[in-house]
């Protein structure tokens, strides 16, 4: 509803309500006579802060106003007409704070502005006693590099110091005094400094008293405590952090008083020492004139107090300050040298004059008490609640004077105590209303002296726990604060102070309260009256869930999430809300029953509380100083012993918080503020019920939070600690009870945090945005917590836990039955079980309240606004959850009653905490279709199972048998009346006829292992069971299940888990995955008891598709693993099978057997036959062409197989270089064969066994000699020969004998037929070329889409390729020159991924090729076979491509031009004829796809073949390249006209001299060197062509324009380029080009250039070496 000023009203659906009304009233007046004054401004007030005699307020739009006595300007402004701080105009302010006599404000950017009194440096301005106008104060963090400006989000101000909270939740301080918490002894501190002791802590809120400070800090986690190591005791001036044991040891070792944090007790010196004096602070009248000074001792006292501000320069602090001897006040200070001083008791005794009598001592004490009770007069500072604060204690750190304790011990009474003072400031009257005799005062002095002598400053009225806390050093923290280093400034302004969150956006209740500064009145809460130089945690408040702290002049307040108020410190005027004396440890304030405090503020002598009462509006409570009635004044006047000339002003105090009656007329109060003489409250008018709705929700939530905490305290905590709880509840209920307790505690914490967030929401009027309402922003957290808690309650109730809990509560809570009945909402004194159930279900009522309030708030907005939509959506969420949880409650009650009615051993086995009964057929409303006449059947539907019992009546507790059907795997179908059931019934021959009309009553139940039909007694019963079954199934599957009608069935396809019991194939197997109509379908996991596991796709109840299966192998004691395709429950398709023996098969399967192409590699376990086979399989046996690499024997077999045996033509290579080709039979060499040894010895003849010769043959030696005859024996040992030896003639011109290789090898066209058959199968064809082309393309699209969907880890580029391949190209149209490139690009993409059939084909062919010609197969005699095999690949591949693109021409055909309908058709066609035609061949289209992948093994064979020639070539290359360029050109016969004379190096021309080398034709040489970087013959030919072009470009400037090359000029010049290029393996490059070059290019220009290169190679090879 709230919005910033200036925003158009029509942006929201409703004009914002009036809010931010400020009411101010004096704090000292009587509660009955007060009349608040309303401050009327044109803008709503966002925030107000009150100082001693002034106030500052923040209005909408960031405007700041001031009122009261502005002493720094010398004016007094009435409250009714505050003045605008004009110097702050133009800056949007978001926060203001008022100190004792100075002011502060924060801008929207986090900047700080301060003004007012600056004698102690509290305004952050150097050497200025007063700052009349706001001045910026920069907070700089110099610990980071570079230093950064800190964004401040909150401020708090005391009398002489200021604290700032940054957006990083760090604390900064400046000013004077130990209340800064800084590690320094130099004061004032002009510039803000970080409070290092809280560095690393998350500070939530800060508050400043007169001379002490409070901080609300988030507690560290448990791991943070354990992670911190115990630091050593730091130097003097730092906190002595030491373990608890060490601290106790220190206390035990020495009886002296240890002052905390380096502040040591010292004796008071009598000599005059320099002390800070301040100028008297006059009180101004509205006219701006100061009043006269007061008389008597009070005047002198105030004179001393105020004179200490006259010197604002820096001083060493603390220093000893001296009081007048007659006042006899000793102060404890910290010397700069840190030396230890005497005991305070001895100091107090030493300062006392020996001749000082008891009467004088008592009289002096009464004078001090009288000074304490003085009223706020014209010249006083306004601080009248303690002696130390008025008597020059501004410079002291610790006051050891027993002033306030004396007063507290003397006036301890439940009634209101009164103090009379002179209006003029005189201190002449003794205490009245409660007279004290001298003996009582003497006893008080004696008690105080004994307390000092025993080194205990703890309040005598505190309980034992406070006294026991003194065993440890008061100033020693239990754990140190870790230092936190920041990298820079972070966050926005709103991210820092204010409502703190614990990471999830809600305020954290795990908080601590830290205090430091002066403690003379016990306002620090540490159990003593010592000062603290550095922050120290108040242990008694840890774990109390404090959400706000407030500091008065000399007292402190803390508000908890349970709406309780802790108070401590001075209680002179009853400002602690208690009737006892001052408190040094926090104690609960006395509040009336039914009051829940949610905001508080502390003034000088009073406390102001904002609470929820019985009425709708919040109420104000006040405790502290106030005026008395006239009757009481007259009584007090008569009791005085001396008369006064001036009229008396009698004041009293309220010791317990009292209701301010006028708060009812102030509408809805959102926050309160207290100061020196004033109180203030901000209120909102209830427009359209919006404000009332928020307050109603907040009040209800606070009430609910208090109720949950009472339940935790009264019920849960005692029961959880009860030792017999487990025995009483039993094993199943004990665990559920602790879950219930945990759920309730989590809910209680959430409610407490939410109530706190709502209070913050009401306080922060500047940013009230309903879209940030906690119920809306954290709805998921609320819903989940309530769901979890309701489930815990229901589970505990279903298991009968509340009956046992009732018995336990009678034993454990017998003395608290009245409180228990009140918590249960029962008026009866004796609590029953139903009361406990109702109590634990009571939180559900809050959900309905959420929905109602959100709906009420939504009505305040227009339906089109964002606020209305957000509120309406939240309302529907909480309303739906409320209805759902109430329904679950009813289900739990019904289920508990069902188990109670049908108790027994059989039913107990079905009883589970989460199980709920839905309906049952005890009235025979549902029976099986073919049930016997005398059989009894009972169906019970739970929320997770359907139970069928048989053999007894439902009313009995015994069942002969029962079956359980999980609802996750249950399908429900209705049977229509078509007569099929009747015919089936008649055919079965049953004696019981089926009435045709009863078919409409039947329901069919389908389960994974059985199906049955149920018959309802009536159509209504059928509809009821059908609806209940469908809703239960839908609910157990995660559906809403509320809108299901009888005709709507649950999901046919679903995911569920099931354990098979009787299925033959899946017996005792556990399945988790997809289902369809009772059968496993989709992806799932099946686990058998024997260890077999299948994870993959199912179809129709069987494994089908891709899946992974682990199968135990008992022989190898290691499981087999298969990953691949399945079909109809069997391994079928391509996959990888890892055997337990270590073998791995990667290939095709058929009906569970290896069939088709496959590769089998033997593992390490099979050492006897370790090797690798790749080839064709038939029915799990090697049959067809295959390659076997026997690693153990070092042999490679390439040929035919039959039934796992070598059979047919083959080639065998050994690692010794022996080459054999011939026939095999029954795994042996048999028949004719050709054997070539490494030394070129050739045997051609008959073989009878492996490497065994037997029969005719011819042995040809390397020199050409021949031995012809009969051979026998083993080749590797010896041969027996009977024959003729023929010597070759000595003829130099005779060519070297070349063996006739290739006549016994397997033809290249017959190799790897299985690979191409598998590719055709993947295209959906039965055989090569036999299939439907459209179906083939659809199969490709489905395969690619499935692969992309099931492979989420694909790279981005690979995913894009698959996406492009999913689209089917225009394959049916004729291929022309226009779309030929489209076909080529598609083939390139298809071959990039193995998911495409063509890509798989390329990958498999590459694998087979490398397995054949790598390793032992890398033999130069296999070169011809390798080339022929590659050409066979291209032929088969091209046939598949032509099947997919029928528009392609035959191998070597011409691609026609695209039809042209333009008028220039004839001219264009003639132009293309001139350019040439496009000829398509398998090599030009497919060789670029295959050859780069096959290039390494193939080129290696070429290099081995050309090795002798290459050696000669390279030797001549090295020799000829030793010559300079001109000498080499001359040697080669290059004409001088072609010799270059200049060369260019980096753009600079240099002359070529006779000694120059590698300087001519550099461009052509570098171009030719690129031939080694290409793969295909076409690319290599392009390199040769570019070399000729570069050569022509270099010689062209020397020749005429019409010059044409002739071979006589070109050859020697190109020969020079080849020599300088130094291309390794040039012979292999030439041979590869010659063998694989496109035949269409052999006779063209490129063919001529290639011939020139070949001629150069031959010329260099044959060049003479002499």
Topology:
Blueprint: E1 19-26, E2 37-39, E3 45-50, E4 54-59, E5 63-70, E6 75-77, E7 83-84, E8 93-98, E9 102-107, E10 112-117, E11 130-137, E12 140-141, E13 148-149, E14 152-157, E15 161-166, E16 171-175, E17 186-187, E18 189-194, E19 203-208, E20 212-218, H1 222-227, H2 244-253, H3 296-306, E21 315-316, E22 331-332, H4 344-350, H5 358-372, E23 398-399, H6 403-410, E24 418-419, H7 438-453, H8 464-468, E25 511-517, E26 532-537, E27 546-551, E28 555-560, E29 565-569, E30 583-588, E31 596-602, E32 606-612, E33 619-627, H9 630-639, E34 651-659, E35 668-674, E36 678-684, H10 690-721, H11 725-729, H12 731-763, H13 774-777, H14 779-798, H15 801-812, H16 817-824, H17 833-841, H18 844-858, H19 866-901, H20 905-910, E37 917-920, E38 926-928, E39 937-942, E40 945-950, E41 961-966, E42 971-974, H21 980-987, E43 1002-1006, E44 1011-1016, H22 1019-1036, E45 1053-1059, E46 1070-1076, E47 1079-1087, E48 1093-1099, E49 1102-1111, E50 1120-1127, E51 1130-1138, E52 1144-1150, E53 1153-1161, E54 1171-1178, E55 1181-1190, E56 1195-1202, E57 1205-1214, E58 1219-1225, ...
Antiparallel strand pairs: 1-2, 1-36, 3-4, 4-5, 5-6, 5-7, 8-9, 9-10, 10-11, 12-13, 14-15, 15-16, 16-18, 17-21, 19-20, 20-25, 22-23, 24-34, 25-26, 27-28, 28-29, 29-30, 31-32, 32-33, 33-34, 35-36, 37-39, 38-44, 39-40, 40-41, 42-43, 43-44, 45-46, 46-47, 47-48, 48-49, 49-50, 50-51, 51-52, 52-53, ...
């Amino acid at each position: 509803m709230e919005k910033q000023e200036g925003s158009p009203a029509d942006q929201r659906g409703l004009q914002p309500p009036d809010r931010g009304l400020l009411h101010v009233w004096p704090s000292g007046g009587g509660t009955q006579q007060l009349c608040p004054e309303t401050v009327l401004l044109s803008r709503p007030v966002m925030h107000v802060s009150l100082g001693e005699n002034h106030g500052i307020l923040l209005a909408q739009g960031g405007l700041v106003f001031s009122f009261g006595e502005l002493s720094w300007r010398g004016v007094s402004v009435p409250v009714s007409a505050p003045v605008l701080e004009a110097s702050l105009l133009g800056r949007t302010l978001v926060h203001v704070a008022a100190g004792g006599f100075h002011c502060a404000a924060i801008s929207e950017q986090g900047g700080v502005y301060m003004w007012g009194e600056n004698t102690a440096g509290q305004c952050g301005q150097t050497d200025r006693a007063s700052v009349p106008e706001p001045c910026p104060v920069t907070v700089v963090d110099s610990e980071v590099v570079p230093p950064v400006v800190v964004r401040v989000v909150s401020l708090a101000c005391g009398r002489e110091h200021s604290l700032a909270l940054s957006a990083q939740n760090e604390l900064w301080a400046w000013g004077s005094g130990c209340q800064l918490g800084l590690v320094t002894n130099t004061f004032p501190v002009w510039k803000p400094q970080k409070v290092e002791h809280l560095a690393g802590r998350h500070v939530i809120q800060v508050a400043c008293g007169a001379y002490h400070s409070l901080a609300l800090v988030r507690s560290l986690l448990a791991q943070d405590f354990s992670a911190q190591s115990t630091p050593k005791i730091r130097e003097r001036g730092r906190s002595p952090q030491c373990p608890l044991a060490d601290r106790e040891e220190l206390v035990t070792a020495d009886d002296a008083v240890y002052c905390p944090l380096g502040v040591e007790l010292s004796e008071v010196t009598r000599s005059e020492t320099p002390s800070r004096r301040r100028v008297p602070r006059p009180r101004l009248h509205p006219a701006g004139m100061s009043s006269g000074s007061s008389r008597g001792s009070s005047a002198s006292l105030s004179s001393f107090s105020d004179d200490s501000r006259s010197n604002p320069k820096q001083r060493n602090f603390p220093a000893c300050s001296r009081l007048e001897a007659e006042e006899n006040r000793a102060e404890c200070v910290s010397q700069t040298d840190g030396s230890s001083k005497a005991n305070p008791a001895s100091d107090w005794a030493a300062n006392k004059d020996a001749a000082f009598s008891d009467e004088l001592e008592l009289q002096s004490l009464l004078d001090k008490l009288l000074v304490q009770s003085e009223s706020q007069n014209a010249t006083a500072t306004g601080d009248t609640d303690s002696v130390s604060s008025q008597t020059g204690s501004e410079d002291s750190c610790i006051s050891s004077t027993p002033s306030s304790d004396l007063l507290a011990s003397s006036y301890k009474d439940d009634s209101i105590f009164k103090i009379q003072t002179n209006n003029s400031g005189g201190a002449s009257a003794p205490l009245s209303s409660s007279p004290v005799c001298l003996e009582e005062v003497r006893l008080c002095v004696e008690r105080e002296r004994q307390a000092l002598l025993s080194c205990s400053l703890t309040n005598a009225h505190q309980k034992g726990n406070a006294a026991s806390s003194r065993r440890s050093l008061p100033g020693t923290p239990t754990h140190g604060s870790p230092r936190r280093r920041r990298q820079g400034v972070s966050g926005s302004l709103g991210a820092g102070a204010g409502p703190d969150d614990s990471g999830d956006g809600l305020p954290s209740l795990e908080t601590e309260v830290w205090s430091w500064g002066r403690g003379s009145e016990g306002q620090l809460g540490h159990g003593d009256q010592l000062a603290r130089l550095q922050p120290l945690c108040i242990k008694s408040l840890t774990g109390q869930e404090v959400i706000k702290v407030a500091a008065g002049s000399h007292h402190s307040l803390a508000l908890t999430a349970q709406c309780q108020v802790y108070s401590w410190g001075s209680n002179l005027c009853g400002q602690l809300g208690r009737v006892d004396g001052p408190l040094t440890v926090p104690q609960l304030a006395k509040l009336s029953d039914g009051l829940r405090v949610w905001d508080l503020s502390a003034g000088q002598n009073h406390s102001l509380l904002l609470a929820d009462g019985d009425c709708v509006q919040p109420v104000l409570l006040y405790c502290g100083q106030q005026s008395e009635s006239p009757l009481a004044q007259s009584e007090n006047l008569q009791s005085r012993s001396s008369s006064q000339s001036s009229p008396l002003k009698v004041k009293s105090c309220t010791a317990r918080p009292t209701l301010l009656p006028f708060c009812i007329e102030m509408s809805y109060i959102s926050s309160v503020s207290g100061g020196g003489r004033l109180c203030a409250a901000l209120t909102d008018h209830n427009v359209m019920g919006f404000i009332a709705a928020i307050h109603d929700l907040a009040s209800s939530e606070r009430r609910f939070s208090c109720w949950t905490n009472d339940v935790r305290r009264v019920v849960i905590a005692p029961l959880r600690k009860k030792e017999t709880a487990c025995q009483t509840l039993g094993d199943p209920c004990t665990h559920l009870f602790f879950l219930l307790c945990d759920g309730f505690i989590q809910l209680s914490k959430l409610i407490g945090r939410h109530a706190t967030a709502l209070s913050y929401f009401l306080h922060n009027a500047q940013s009230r945005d309903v879209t940030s309402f906690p119920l809306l922003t954290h709805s998921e957290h609320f819903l989940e917590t309530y769901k979890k808690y309701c489930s815990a309650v229901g589970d505990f109730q279903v298991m009968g836990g509340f009956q046992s809990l009732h018995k336990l509560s009678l034993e454990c809570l017998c003395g608290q039955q009245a409180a228990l009945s009140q918590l249960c909402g029962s008026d009866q004194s004796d609590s029953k079980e139903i009361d406990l159930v109702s109590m634990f279900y009571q939180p559900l009522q809050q959900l309905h309240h959420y929905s109602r309030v959100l709906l009420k708030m939504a009505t305040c907005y227009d339906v089109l606004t964002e606020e209305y939509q957000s509120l309406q959506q939240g309302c529907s969420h909480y309303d739906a959850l409320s209805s759902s949880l109430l329904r679950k409650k009813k289900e739990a009650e019904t289920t508990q009653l069902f188990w109670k009615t049908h108790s027994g051993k059989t039913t107990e086995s079905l009883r589970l905490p989460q199980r709920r009964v839905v309906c049952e057929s005890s009235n025979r409303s549902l029976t099986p279709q073919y049930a016997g006449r005398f059989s009894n059947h009972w169906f019970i539907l739970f929320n997770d199972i359907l139970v069928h019992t048989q053999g007894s009546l439902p009313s009995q507790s015994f069942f002969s048998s029962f079956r359980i059907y999980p609802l996750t795997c249950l399908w429900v179908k209705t049977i229509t009346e078509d007569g099929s059931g009747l015919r089936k019934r008649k055919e079965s021959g049953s004696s019981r006829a089926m009435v045709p009309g009863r078919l409409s009553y039947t329901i069919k139940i389908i389960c994974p292992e059985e199906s049955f039909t149920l018959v309802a007694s009536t159509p209504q019963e059928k509809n009821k069971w059908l609806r209940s079954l469908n809703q239960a199934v839908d609910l157990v599957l995660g559906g809403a299940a509320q809108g299901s009608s009888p005709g709507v069935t649950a999901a046919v396809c679903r995911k569920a888990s099931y354990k098979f019991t009787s299925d033959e194939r899946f017996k005792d197997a556990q399945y988790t995955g997809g289902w369809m109509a009772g059968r496993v379908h989709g992806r799932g996991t099946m686990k058998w008891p024997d260890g077999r596991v299948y994870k993959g796709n199912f179809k129709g109840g069987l494994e089908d598709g891709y899946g992974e299966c682990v199968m135990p192998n008992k022989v190898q004691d290691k499981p087999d693993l298969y990953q691949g395709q399945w079909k109809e429950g069997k391994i079928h398709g391509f996959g990888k099978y890892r055997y337990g023996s270590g073998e791995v098969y990667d290939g095709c399967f058929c009906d569970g057997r290896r069939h088709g192409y496959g590769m089998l590699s033997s593992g390490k376990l099979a050492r006897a036959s370790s090797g690798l086979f790749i080839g064709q399989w038939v029915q799990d046996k090697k049959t067809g062409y295959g390659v076997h690499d026997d690693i153990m024997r070092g042999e490679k077999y390439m040929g035919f197989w039959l039934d796992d045996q070598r059979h047919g033509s083959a080639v065998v290579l050994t690692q010794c270089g022996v080459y054999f080709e011939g026939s095999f039979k029954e795994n042996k060499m048999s028949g004719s064969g050709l054997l070539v040894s490494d030394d070129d010895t050739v045997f051609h003849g008959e073989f009878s066994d492996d490497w065994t010769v037997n029969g005719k043959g011819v042995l040809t030696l390397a020199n050409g000699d021949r031995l012809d005859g009969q051979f026998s024996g083993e080749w590797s040992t010896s041969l027996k020969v009977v024959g003729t030896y023929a010597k070759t003639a000595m003829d130099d011109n005779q060519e070297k004998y070349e063996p006739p290789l290739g006549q016994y090898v397997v033809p290249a066209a017959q190799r790897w037929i299985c690979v191409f058959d598998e590719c055709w199968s993947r295209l959906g064809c039965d055989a090569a070329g036999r299939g439907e082309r459209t179906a083939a393309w659809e199969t490709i699209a489905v395969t690619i889409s499935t692969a992309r969907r099931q492979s989420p880890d694909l790279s981005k580029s690979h995913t894009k390729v698959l996406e492009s391949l999913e689209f089917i190209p225009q394959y049916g149209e004729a291929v022309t020159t226009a779309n030929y490139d489209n076909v080529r690009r598609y083939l390139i993409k298809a071959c990039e991924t193995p998911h495409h059939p063509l890509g798989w084909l390329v990958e498999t062919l590459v694998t087979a090729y490398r397995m054949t010609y790598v390793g032992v197969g890398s033999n130069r005699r296999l070169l011809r076979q390798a080339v022929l095999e590659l050409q066979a690949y291209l032929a088969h591949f091209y046939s598949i491509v032509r099947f997919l693109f029928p528009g392609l021409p035959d191998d070597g055909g011409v691609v026609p031009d695209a039809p042209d309908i333009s008028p220039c058709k004839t001219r264009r066609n003639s132009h293309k004829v001139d350019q040439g035609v496009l000829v398509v061949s398998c090599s030009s289209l497919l060789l670029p796809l295959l050859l780069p992948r096959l290039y390494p093994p193939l080129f290696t064979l070429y290099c081995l073949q050309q090795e002798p020639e290459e050696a000669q070539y390279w030797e001549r290359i090295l020799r000829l390249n030793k010559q300079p360029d001109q000498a080499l050109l001359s040697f080669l016969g290059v004409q001088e006209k072609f010799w270059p004379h200049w060369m260019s190096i980096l753009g600079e021309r240099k002359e070529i001299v006779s000694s120059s080398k590698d300087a001519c034709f550099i461009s052509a040489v570098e171009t030719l060197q690129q031939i080694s970087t290409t793969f295909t013959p076409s690319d290599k030919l392009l390199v040769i062509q570019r070399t000729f072009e570069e050569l022509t470009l270099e010689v062209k400037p020397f020749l005429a324009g019409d010059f044409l090359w002739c071979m006589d000029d070109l050859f020697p010049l190109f020969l020079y380029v080849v020599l300088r290029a130094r291309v390794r393996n040039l012979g292999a490059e030439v041979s590869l080009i010659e063998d694989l070059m496109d035949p269409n290019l052999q006779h063209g220009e490129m063919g001529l250039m290639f011939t020139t290169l070949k001629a150069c190679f031959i010329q260099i090879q044959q060049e003479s070496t002499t």
